[in-house]
Amino acid sequence: MRRLALLALLLPLVAPAQPALAQASATVCPVRVDPAAFASEARLSALATRQGTFGPRPTGSAAHAGYVDWLEEEMAAIPGLQLSSLPYAIDRWDNLGTGLTVGGTSVQVAAPVPFSSSTGAGGVSAPLVHLAAGTNITAANAAGKIVVRDLPWTSVPNLLFYPPTLGYSMYDPGMTINLLGSESMEAPAAADADLKAAAAAGALGVIEVSQLPHAQIKDMYAPYEGLPYGVPGAYVGADQGKQIKDALAAGQPVQASLTVNAAWTPTTTRTLLATLPGGSAQKIVVESHTDGMSPVWDNGPLTMIEMARYLSSLPVECRPRTVQFAFVTGHLYQHLTGPDVREGGAGQLAAQLDAEYDQGKVSSVVVLEHLGAKRYDAVARPNGLPGKQLVASPNLTELLWVPVSESTPLRELVKGHIEYWDVRRTAILKGLSAADLATVPHHCSFGGEGTPYNQHLLPVIAPIAAPKTLFSPQFGAEAIDLPVMRKASLAFTDVVLDLGPMAQSAVAGDVTTMRQQRAAGTPGCA
User: Is 130 left (phi over 0), alpha (psi -120 to 50) or beta?
Assistant: First the structure.
């Protein structure tokens, strides 16, 4: 019945039949993805395991290039796809080694802060100073010193994800979400502000202390601006942080030596495009990024492989629009083309699609990130150990946020498929930032890769979760709930299937008016 209701909503909005469809009136097209014709959980598991063999994939690294090459091989094996690439020249940042001693005693380092200033192999030595949260890093308290900082935790109230605030609809039939609770996770992105402030203050380095143990943050990778910091920085776990603070608690000056040996290496990276021609050249773009630390960070491409395989098996008459799969680079190198633009490869592609949209070449964008991310809770560590540790929930995934641009038919389309495939703990949203009616779009953030497409005023559907395991390669394919990932993959393949015949006026909704307002001078997002 839900399917019939959805069709009743969309049929008045469907564009007049194109010649290709008229000529193929005898062709019977599926009204929904046949799960028997789609990848099994075992297949998705095999893909995630294969992805994991590449290890961490910083932008432009050999592992990243190998992963993109493998994706190209997978897509090349699918009949009918046309492959191309968008290359970019970058200076890759390579970690050659890190080290830390405090008061002459070695302290284990979990990871350098990416894009830190290199100390060379000899490191830098200076007195330590602990500046607690809320204390600004200034020349008066930090010049000539190595600053110790505690990473903050962000917290967002769950009520924000319900109507009438950011929410459009919530699907949580098991009532697993505490309305008075919040979603929280550690925020290594705060290191960006700390290192910039430390450099401006004349500090010689920064040590960021996590509340999580070393084993869970080893080789953590964030922030990922792609621009050099003026000081070296490193992360340490909760036990190592206590070791440092205990040394400082004695009240005597403590000398430390910090080594972040790094190099910048010219290289190239690329966005891979795989185009499946349809009845018209107007394209639906399905996008995800390829550079990341773990399988859950980059499992969107795995769904895209199987979505392409399914759609290519259909007669062209069942694909009224072309579908282009974009495997984007630069997610971990946001200033991909220089210091003045922060959008990574997604922003570069969004600008191109923006220019093509008014020519009728682009219909919509579907961005896939972190599907089926298992929920991990931060709990107290046993035996009085400092900080917290992440423990997997036995039966819950992280809340899946699905920001959808300003179109009621588009939001209803997504809502119907989420509920049909029972993708639980899903919030369909108007955006992930407060509304500003003076700008177009009104919600400037979609939380991840969907943001630049939304800011370029393209019709966008952008599912994303925020797993606490995101930044660490210590969590592998076991951090993905494969049954939920498969349900989400089926749901968004159905979304793409239904976007094919949907009238562009319904797809766009208020985006059409917003593009006119932008042309007339209404400001966009800063």
Answer: beta
pLDDT tens for residues 73-131?
Answer: 999 999 999 999 999 999 999 999 999 999 999 999 999 999 999 999 999 999 999 99
Alpha-carbon span 394 to 396, nearest angstrom: 6
> Minimal CA–CA distance to 441: which of 524, 355, 347, 318?
524
Q: How many residues does the chain have?
A: 526
Containing 465, the helix (H) or strand (E) segment is none
Q: What is the three-class DSSP state of 263?
A: strand
Which secondary-structure segment (H or E) carries 111? strand 111-112
Rounded to an integer, the average pLDDT of 119-146 is: 97
| H or E element at residue 433 | none
Q: What's the alpha-carbon Rg for the chain, to the nearest Å?
A: 24
Q: Which string of DSSP letters, residue by residue, matches 364-432?
A: EEEE--STTBEEEEEEEPGGG-SSEEEEEEEEEEPPEEEEB-S-HHHHHHHHHHHHHTT--SEEEES-S
Q: For 315-344, what is the mean pLDDT?
A: 96
Report in angstroms the alpha-carbon separations of 283 from 279, 361, 390: 10, 6, 41
- How buried is residue 99: exposed, middle or buried, by Cβ count under 10 Å (0-12/13-18/19+)? middle
What is the reported pTM?
0.93
Residues 6+ apart with CB under 8 A from 500: 278, 284, 318, 319, 320, 321
User: pLDDT value at position 518?
Assistant: 98
**pLDDT digit string, tens, across residues 164-183:** 999 999 999 999 999 999 98
Exposed/middle/buried for 164, CB within 10 Å: 0-12, 13-18, 19+?
exposed
Owner of token pair 């699907």:
171
